[in-house]
Amino acid sequence: MTLKAVKPGSVGDRAEENLVFIRQAMERSATFTSIPGAGGVAMGVVALVASVVAARQPSGDRWLITWLVAAAIAAIVGLVAMARKAKRGGGTLTGVTGRRFALGLAAPLVAGAAITYELWAIRTFTVMAPAWLLLYGAGVLTGGIFSVPIVRAIGGCFMALGIAAIVAPPEWGNVWLAIGFGGLHVGFGAYIARNYGG
């Protein structure tokens, strides 16, 4: 019986394989830390202004347009602030943890957009505020699994406000949106800016 000689791989090949494995393990265990505190404060200010403007609108359609414009502005502010914070930290928004955070956040937001369209189509505006708070909270909570614990707390607070908005009188919708998208973003944004590097 003869034994075949096994040709050992080069040390360089094994080292490269080990580095790839280590990098992938680190990416899987890393947290997404590019949540911008200052950007959150700015998003909250946009929402507070929107709540005042929306409360003065003469129709449900104009109320909805006010909030949709505010949401678009806040989303741009948030993305720019995230990109800047990631760049300062030497990271990127397109890394594994960034993509996981975005996927966790995106699914409830897409559901929220679809529900908003249907509620608009059947002319039911009063349900929008609780739905937005609940779904945004669900998205932040889900995406927050890949981030620091405070992000999950933000998501939970949004969901709690959504539940409160369900049991409150329907005409309080603007108040709940101001507390949630305005107050929570400003408060938690300031906390994140102070404790998590901007």
Description:
By secondary structure, the protein is mostly helical. The chain has one domain.
Q: What Rg, in angstroms, do the CA atoms define?
A: 22 Å
Order of helices and strands: HHHHHHH
Helix proportion: over 70%
Distance between the termini: 69 Å
Instruction: Assign the structural class, choosing from mainly alpha, mainly beta, alpha/beta, alpha+beta, or little secondary structure.
Output: mainly alpha
The low-confidence runs, each spanning 5 or more residues with pLDDT under 50, are 24-31
| Mean pLDDT rating | 85
Quick overview:
Helix content is 76%, strand content 0%. The chain is mostly helical and 198 residues long.
Please tag this protein with its features.
single chain, 198 residues, mainly alpha, elongated
Write the layout of secondary structure elements.
Elements: H1 11-29, H2 37-55, H3 60-88, H4 96-121, H5 128-143, H6 149-167, H7 173-195
